[in-house]
Write a structure and sequence with these properties.
This protein has 15 helices and 15 strands. The chain is of the alpha/beta class and 404 residues long. The chain has two domains: 143 residues, Aspartate Aminotransferase, domain 1; 235 residues, Aspartate Aminotransferase, domain 2. The strands form three sheets. It has a seven-stranded mixed β-sheet, with helices on both faces. The chain has a four-stranded mixed β-sheet with strand order 1-2-3-13. Strands 11-12-15-14 form a four-stranded antiparallel β-sheet. It is globular and about 60 Å long. The structure holds 4'-deoxy-4'-aminopyridoxal-5'-phosphate. The site of 4'-deoxy-4'-aminopyridoxal-5'-phosphate has 14 residues, from α5. InterPro entries: Aminotransferase_I/II_large (IPR004839), AON_synthase_class-II (IPR050087), AONS_Proteobacteria (IPR022834), PyrdxlP-dep_Trfase (IPR015424), PyrdxlP-dep_Trfase_major (IPR015421), PyrdxlP-dep_Trfase_small (IPR015422). Belongs to the class-II pyridoxal-phosphate-dependent aminotransferase family. BioF subfamily. It holds the Pfam family Aminotran_1_2.
Length: 404
């Protein structure tokens, strides 16, 4: 069979299950409004939770950084790609996480995917057992597959199952690996319970706070601040392309852990450092996260979450035959579980016709039968924006119920 025939058959199978994905091209705009095919859409799909990507101060800082440092970094960090801007970002983050991680040091990466790959492959050697949460992000799953460590998966937020698995482990080193905010459900990992188990069983806790950094905690430090955690066993990954409004990621951990990553993480060592202009602009982003704009947008997010959840619950009550449901989320990720792939895509299309961009999420990203609209809020949405979404969903629900 030729490769093209083989791939065409696989593509046809995806299409038959309503699982084909499509790239959509935005003309311009940033969250929460974007033009697509010449039409302005109100977005409930960006992870730019604080709306910082649209901040003029960030654009100015990018331009200033580009004038000072040029376009790209030109080399991997250990060769010549590491600039004073990279160092300042790492120093700021080390200071931010010092209250949570004794002897904290931070190290930057180009993406969160790469940061997760670095931590899990470098630390997950043949002496290690990785305890991986069932709903972990794909990058953590891929990283665990690549690591030399034994991998044991534990069921979603199930501390008892994890305890049993830890108690049975004979590995020299134990690494518990979890998302802090689950990206497709929006619920929080039971981090205090996970850390208590790490202490009890001499394990280390890798926390991927991609969706908590900038959002959770009084000053936006994320899940560690939200739960008030402190331990040298915490190994934190944060991303900078979401609430920070730019790009990149970091690992914050005990200095010995970070020093080892610098020596051993192959995807860090053998990959070009991020553009210094981005690092320069991240300093502006951090000031915004830390300042009154960050505090105001975090407070707005909480108010909008409540408004959206109340509205969605009322909608579900009005249309019980559709079988829609919510998750146990107290974050800006508020999914509406619809069930079928074709149904969720029809719903997303109906919303788009009404001027709203909300993505339908299907397997394998979520379990079969659990396709959903992944509604995400932005700190620059207004209450009227949320009401617009609820009204459009109400019309779409009535139409789907009639058609059923
Ligand atoms: N972890 C989680 C939980 C994520 O949701 C994502 C991105 N969607 C990543 C890691 C990867 O981060 P990045 O997009 O910076 O590669």
């Amino acid at each position: 069979m030729s490769l093209l025939d083989h791939l065409s058959a696989k593509l046809a199978a995806l299409s038959a299950q309503s699982l084909t994905r499509q790239l959509r091209t935005a003309d311009d705009g940033t969250a929460p409004r974007q033009r697509v095919n010449g039409r302005e859409l109100l977005m409930f799909c960006s992870n730019d939770y604080l709306g910082l990507a649209a901040e003029p101060a960030i654009a100015d800082a990018l331009a200033e950084g580009a004038h000072r440092w040029g376009g790209g970094s030109g080399a991997s960090p250990l060769v010549s790609g590491h600039s004073a801007a990279h160092e300042a970002v790492a120093d700021t983050l080390a200071g931010w996480f010092a209250p949570h991680i004794p002897q904290a040091r931070a190290l930057g990466f180009c993406t969160g995917y790469m940061a997760n790959l670095a931590v899990v492959t470098a630390l997950g050697d043949e002496h290690t057992e990785i305890f991986s949460e069932q709903l972990n992000h794909a990058s953590l799953i891929d990283a665990a597959r690549l690591a030399k460590a034994k991998v044991t998966r534990f069921p979603h937020v199930d501390l008892d199952a994890l305890r049993t698995a830890l108690a049975a482990s004979t590995a020299k080193v134990r690494l518990i690996v979890t998302d802090a905010v689950f990206s497709m459900d929006g619920d929080l990992a039971p981090l205090p319970g996970l850390l208590a188990l790490a202490e009890e069983f001499d394990a280390w806790l890798v926390v991927d706070d991609a969706h908590g950094f900038g959002v959770l905690g009084a000053t936006g430090r994320g899940a560690l601040e939200h739960f008030g955690l402190r331990s040298e066993r915490l190994i934190l990954v944060g991303t900078l392309g979401k609430a920070a409004g730019l790009a990149g990621a970091f690992v914050a951990a005990h200095t010995t852990v970070v020093e080892y990553l610098l020596q051993a993480a192959r995807n860090f060592i053998f990959s070009t450092a991020s553009p210094p202009a981005i690092e320069h602009a991240l300093l502006t982003s951090f000031a915004l996260i830390d300042g009154p704009a960050g505090a105001q947008r975090r407070a707005n997010l909480v108010a909008l979450q409540v408004r959206l959840r109340d509205g969605l619950m009322a909608l579900i009550d009005r249309h019980p035959r559709l079988g829609w449901s919510l998750t146990d989320s107290s974050t800006p990720i508020q999914p509406l579980i619809v069930g079928g792939n074709a149904e969720v895509m029809a719903l997303a299309a109906a919303l788009e016709a009404a001027g709203l961009r909300v993505p339908g999420i299907r397997p394998p990203t979520v379990a079969a039968g659990k396709a959903r609209l992944r509604i995400t809020l932005c700190g620059t949405h207004t209450a009227a924006d949320v009401d617009t979404l609820l009204a459009a969903l109400g019309r779409a629900a009535a139409a789907q119920e009639q058609a059923a």
